Amino acid sequence: MFNKEEMLSVCTRLSQNTLMQTLEIEYIDAGEGFLTAKMPVNPRVHQPMGLLHGGASVALAESVGSAASLMFLDPEKFEVRGIEISANHLKSKREGVVYATAKIIHKGRSIHLWEIRIVDENENLISLCKLTNMVLPRRKM
């Protein structure tokens, strides 16, 4: 049975001391087949023209899409690797917050395909991304 609070807690724990923490990505909602995170838009994620950097948007999308695959896996037995991501940046953003929601398109045994919509506070579509994850058996360390 899906447990939203547990999923958000796992995502938060796994983000410690990573790029997600550096970009201040916070996981805020989860449900059957989706995960949502938010990221502040400030100079930390700007490109030189003072706009949200496309790479920061892609990092947000890959972070939320990869974490979302964990909903379907036992993290003690499996790992997730992003193997392809594409992004269309449709609108610029200078400040505020963006929200990324990953929704499952295909859930296979070894491949997960996600659509990630990044929107602003007014539901304006900022970027539309597609992420393919590979599911691997966890290696013993």
UniProtKB/TrEMBL annotation:
Thioesterase domain span: 49-125
Keywords from the UniProt entry: Hydrolase
Gene3D superfamilies: Hotdog Thioesterase (3.10.129.10)
Domain of life: Bacteria
Name of a matching Pfam family: 4HBT
Family named by the database record: Belongs to the thioesterase PaaI family.
NCBIfam families in the cross-refs: unchar_dom_1
Protein's name according to its UniProt entry: PaaI family thioesterase
Originating organism: Flavobacterium jejuense
